[in-house]
Amino acid sequence: MKHRKSVILLLLISLLLIPAITACSNAQKNGSEKKAQTTSDPVKQGTQKMKQINHKLQAALKKNDSEAIKKYGKQINTQWLSYENGVRDRFPLQYAKIERYQQPIYAQSNLSAPDIAQMKENSSALEDQLDDLLAAKETKAKPSKLMKQAVNDYLKYANEQIDLLVKTTKPFVAAVKAGDVDKAKQLYTKPRIYYERAEPIAESFGDLDPSIDARINDVDDESKWTGFHEIERALWEKNSLKGQEKYADKLLEDVLSLQQKAKSFELTPKAMVAGSMELLEEAATSKITGEEERYSHTDLVDLQANVDGSQAVYQAAIPALNQGHKDLANQIDKQFQSFDKLMLKYKKSDTEYEDYTKLNKDQIREISNELSKLSKLMAQTAKIF
Questions:
Q1: Does residue 355 form part of some domain?
Q2: Across the chain, what does the average pLDDT equal?
Q3: Which of 15, 64, 339, 372 could form a disulfide with 284 if both were Cys (CB 3.0 to 4.6 A apart)?
Q4: How many domains, the chain?
């Protein structure tokens, strides 16, 4: 009797456990299927691998291991290149955001002394964008809606650059007003980078761009000349900041005005792309001659910043290019990569490139040709809108 009760009790326990075991088995099966589905997607798989490399980079950054930092920074770029086309086709809005942080990491990894603080910041931001990509749904909206979003994204980028322009102009102006020539020279290129990246927006506000960025041959009356280049001449040609206080105050006033106006600026897709094309054309024909920074000879800083700003336009236009113009998108993408690779030969730090006067004619011609190729490709993009 006792034995029969034990058997019955065991049967009851088994019956109660069957649903739980079945549920557990199903959950494991579903989890395995979900994992298999994730890893079989080349974009998701590539992103997971990129995250793994980024984690190694972050560990190296914590240890300040220079060789490992360079190694993993370059590996991130190699991994991104292996699957970026799939991201550009299916997730164009996420693509631009990843490029924004991946590219500076790669650029730093090619320097003899990478900026650790900046790489940490970009690596952390990249991690967030990779997580967003893993969770993202494929972009299937109408081109018109995508382009509206793209213009908004570009304007956000331009405003970020102008905010940084203001932030870096303030210490430069302070150094000028203090008469500190060496410090002002050191700080000069920082605001120039952000201005040149957002130059198409600045040029939309009438006299504001000439007031900030006019070269001496752009003005009829030299006594009315203001802006960066007037101060540049004082720093490198005169090696004196005597009487520059009023020009410094005017420069800060103008960039603050630009910051305010840019926040409410409206832009069409066609104007966005046309501005980029014109900027590249100017860089390839006139700026490449060394006339932009004729006293400091920091022209390569400006040229790279112009290309950075144009690349932000291209990235914003990708959703429209995906609609029947993928070959053009591939050509543009490869040309930006080609230009960046070329410029790495002359890059010393984020704000320092080779002195323009040390380049020979062949080197200048090579840079000009690469810029011209970019300009022509962006001109084809402008025809789409």
A1: no
A2: 87
A3: 372
A4: 1
